[in-house]
Design goal:
Layout: E1 3-6, H1 12-19, H2 27-32, H3 37-40, E2 45-51, E3 54-61, E4 64-68, H4 72-85, E5 91-95, H5 96-110, E6 115-125, E7 138-139, H6 145-160, H7 170-182, E8 186-191, E9 194-204, E10 208-216, H8 226-240, E11 244-250, H9 254-263, E12 266-275
Parallel strand pairs: 4-5, 10-11
Antiparallel strand pairs: 1-2, 2-3, 3-4, 5-12, 6-11, 6-12, 7-8, 8-9, 9-10
Helix pairs in contact: 4-5, 6-7, 8-9
Length: 276
């Protein structure tokens, strides 16, 4: 059957093949597939666009809307269905062409957006970092959770423009940070009860992982902490999570881009994000 339909467990091999076309760009969706489609449905939907040749494109629809390998035809079909159901997500994120074209078709019914970040550089490193790592950046311990959470809140608020603990979400957000710490996906340098540097792995497959939440204590910025901190994150992630480490950064964030390039990241593609 051609067109859009919800993906079923039998579609999982085809979906895995689809995300494998670009393991870096599709890291988030690939990381969710380890749960299996049935468990994903507890918090999100997975749609597929089918042609006579089989699964051509996919769409992950949870708190984030994430397109996978879409085409003009599949985006038009997805947009038609999305218009009819109304907006349920808090953001759209993924490859820039896919996201921006979907948004163009949805803006009249879903808009306005709070912000459109039309060009975010997707960067990757699959070798040792080019600078020496900070030996004091280590895997965050659960005993450091109370110290870490305020830094995570500050980073999220600065990056997204709203606090993640607004609207009674403090407990839920703390639980998410605890999950990252407990799984060994939080890396930090903490001294005398103060976070100096921190970052997390927000998504990971067997091939690639994606860094998020890079933060240097505002009182210590400009002291050369970010490059060795990121180098340490790269090494820890490669040793513990996946051999390929990626992240995406706003094109206007010149300082961060220079830092990542110095560490050894290279450009892999372009993302875009629409925030609601």
């Amino acid at each position: 059957m051609n067109g859009v339909r919800q993906l079923m467990p039998d579609d999982l091999p085809a979906l895995r093949s689809l995300v494998s076309r670009d393991p870096v760009a599709h890291c988030f969706v690939s990381s969710r597939l380890s749960l299996g489609i049935e468990r994903i449905r507890m918090g999100a939907d997975l749609w597929g666009y089918f042609t006579d040749q089989g699964l051509e494109s996919a769409l992950y629809l949870g708190a984030n809307l994430v397109p996978v390998e879409t085409t003009p035809a599949s985006r038009a079909a997805f947009a038609d269905r999305l218009r009819r159901m109304g907006r349920r997500c808090s953001s759209m994120v993924g490859c820039a062409e896919d996201v921006l074209d979907l948004w163009r078709q949805l803006e009249a019914s879903w808009g306005p957006a709070r912000e459109v970040r039309a060009r975010q550089l997707l960067m990757v490193i699959d070798s040792e970092p080019a600078v020496a790592p900070d030996p004091l950046v280590t895997v965050t311990q659960i005993s450091d959770l109370d110290t870490l959470v305020p830094a995570c809140v500050d980073m999220f608020t600065s990056e997204v423009g709203i606090s993640p603990v607004n609207g009674g979400m403090a407990t839920s957000y703390r639980s998410r940070i605890l999950e990252l710490v407990a799984s060994g996906c939080s890396y930090s340098r903490i001294e005398n009860g103060e976070v100096i540097f921190k970052a997390e792995i927000g998504a990971a497959s067997g091939v690639a992982c994606q860094v998020q939440g890079v933060w240097v204590n505002p009182t210590l910025r400009g002291r050369g902490l970010s490059k060795p901190g990121m180098a340490a994150v790269v090494l820890l992630a490669q040793q513990r999570v996946a051999p390929v480490v990626s992240l995406y950064v706003n094109d206007y964030n010149t300082l961060a881009r220079k830092c990542y390039l110095s560490v050894g990241f290279r450009e892999h593609g372009e993302f875009a994000t629409v925030l609601f």
